[in-house]
Write a structure and sequence with these properties.
Layout: E1 13-15, E2 18-20, E3 26-30, H1 37-50, E4 54-56, H2 74-87, E5 91-94, H3 101-107, E6 110-113, H4 121-126, E7 134-137, H5 144-156, E8 162-166, H6 184-191, E9 196-198, H7 200-204, H8 207-219, E10 224-228, H9 246-262
Parallel strand pairs: 3-4, 3-10, 4-5, 5-6, 6-7, 7-8, 8-9
Antiparallel strand pairs: 1-2
Helix pairs in contact: 1-2, 1-9, 8-9
This protein binds phosphoenolpyruvate (PEP) and manganese (II) ion.
Amino acid sequence: LVNRAFHPDDTIVDVSGVKVGGGHLALIAGPCSVESEEQVIEIAKAVKASGANMLRGGAFKPRTSPYSFQGLGLEGLEILCAAREETGLPIVTELMSPEYLEIFDEKVDLIQIGARNMQNYDLLKQLGQTKRPILLKRGLNATYEEWMMSAEYIMASGNPNVILCERGIRTFETYTRNTLDLQSIPVVRKLSHLPVVVDPSHAGGKWWLVDPMAKASIAAGADGLIIEVHNSPETALCDGAQSLKPEKYDTLLKEITGIAKAV
Ligand code: PEP
Ligand code: MN
């Protein structure tokens, strides 16, 4: 189902009216975590004015330490819904447990499956119970084959609306959080008809790497970008070091338009 050999044309996934793939870019931006209604609405308005077409924000957070901020949970989801109401931007947020699938199906426009859950096959199989599009992140150490097979699980379970997301992989390098695998973009586009977007924020882990890697991703043929933007990165509860300020995101989107036209 995932294989380009049986589906030569690019798949275009419709996220509540926003097309992704086949030349349509997903421009997803927002904070790592939902912290408060004021925070999310302020960022949502700013990124929308810059040209973003979807809002991201984690309500359920997969944190390395159990003592780190775990997200606002369902309260965070309600805040995202309020931001959608205010701005019209479709919302993208991570689902960690099948327990919340029904409520995500009802409220979330694009359901994110995080890198750590890419091989949670029980969760993947459950996703056939919704037709909501799924943003499937590449696992921290997943090969292309493993990543494609995880997409196959979702499609085989009955949900054809899958968008892939390259977010960097674990390598021997420790200077950056992960290593952005730019080659995955042309490889995945060769192997599959599904759209592929890039998350340069989690790849590099440093805000100043986001701009060059976002541009390189678009030049390499990515179908969009998911970028962490925060109005106060210094005080962010999660991933401040890799978050762009709204002004920087604005400049980046202006510069990306020309690159996208040239691809
Ligand atoms: C995120 O997007 O906030 C996130 C946790 O990403 P990943 O699953 O790629 O680490
Ligand atoms: Mn994050």
